[in-house]
Structures are given as C-alpha cells and as structure tokens.
Design brief:
Protein name: Origin recognition complex subunit 3 N-terminal domain-containing protein
Distance between the termini: 149 Å
GO molecular function: DNA replication origin binding
Pfam family, one: ORC3_N
Shape: elongated
Number of helices: 7
Strand order of the largest sheet: 1-4
Largest sheet: 2 strands, parallel
Helix content: 40-55%
Strand content: 5-15%
Radius of gyration: 52 Å
InterPro entries: ORC3, ORC3_N
Organism: Claviceps pusilla
Length: about 240
Amino acid sequence: MNNLPSPLSVSVMQDRSTQDGFAQDAYQVAYIFDPQENTPQPLKKRKLTRQTKPEPIDESNTPSFAPLLNGAEGETFVRLRRERFEQAWGLVNGRIETTSIDQIPSAFIITGPNIAPQDLLFEQLSEALPRSYPDSKFVRLKSSEALTLKAALKKTIRDATNVAAAGREDKIDGGVDADADAETTRDDFKIGNILDGRRYLDYDLEALEAYVKPLQCEHVFVAFQDSEGFESGLLSDLITLFQ
C-alpha cells in the first residue's frame, strides 16, 4: 500500500511556497520615473572662442614671388628679387610702349558685301583724317588701279603729291615736271620743293619722303579700298616698303 501525503501536509507545503514567493518579490528592485514637465531644463554651456580681427595685409611687404629652394628662401630675398624684377621690367616695358619702329598704325574696316557705300565712306575718311591731322596726306588705292607693285607705288606717290599741290602750288611742279605732257612715257619727275632739283623715279618712295619732309608731314594715310581684291603677296610687299 502506497504512502500518500495527507491533505494537511499538502496545504502546509503550498503555504510555504507562497511565503517564499512573496519573500522573493519583496526584494526585487523597482524604478519609478516621474518627470516634472514645468521644471526648465538646464542649458548646455558652449565654449566660446574669442574671435580676433584679421590684421590688414600690407601688399607692398607681401612677396608675390614664390620662394626658391623649396621654400627655404627668406622673405627678404624674395622681396628683393621682386624689386629688381620690377625695375628691370619697367625699363623694358617703357621701350615697348614708346618705340614702334616695326609697326604701322592701321585699322581694318569691314563694310560687308555691298560695295556701293564704300565710296562715301572713304570720302568721309579722306575729309576727316586731314582735319584731325592737319599735316597729313590721304591716298586711296583700288585693286583695279594697283595690279602690280610699281603701279601701287606710282599711285601712292602721285596722289600724295597732287593732293598737296592743290593748296600749295609753290611746293611742286604740278606733280610732274613742266614738259610732262610731251614726255608722258617718262618714269621720273621732279619735286618742286627740292633745292638741288633732283629727279626721282615715280615709283621711288624716296621721292615721297623728299616731298613731305620739308612740309613737316607726319602721316601719309594709305587706304586699300577693296582689300580683299588685292593679291596677298602684293599687300605684303607694300606693307614691307611702307615700314
């Protein structure tokens, strides 16, 4: 016969387990969170750095050249190199700006495909330039009148001297010598304001120089009315001679 526990012993065991359970719950940790909404939160303190005003940079003392020797060159030597460069370049630049021996002041005017208004334009130029430069001459060259270098030079010299002859008849013998009508095939003429009476070839630019020098003429304007009609080699030769 099995020994079964009595009802009284079972109830006592349950009471003990219940007491042990309450004992364990009594020692458990509990946290209560109760925020106070009306309490202002403390502000975080930020670390402020003192801002210093940038000092003005003296550009005159700041070297504009990069230091040599991988940056080992002193600032004093860098500034000295800059000063020496500015002095040397000032002399060279002065000669460049003031000396233009190999240059001819020129302008290129594009009138478009319509050549009808070109005559009026060049007439206005021939009137305006002498007003701006009183001691000057104006010559117009057309491609049909200057097929060769000699023809272009003849046209330039004759027009420059004839323009002046209209107002200064005492300075030139009508552009040619007295018996030019009888000897139209001659290629020389006499400049009237030359004391020695020297004759020049009518395509020699020395004749033009001999004429304008006593008149103190500083400018002889040569306008290529239809520059696109001139041969490139002819233009190159004329510009070379005009220099």
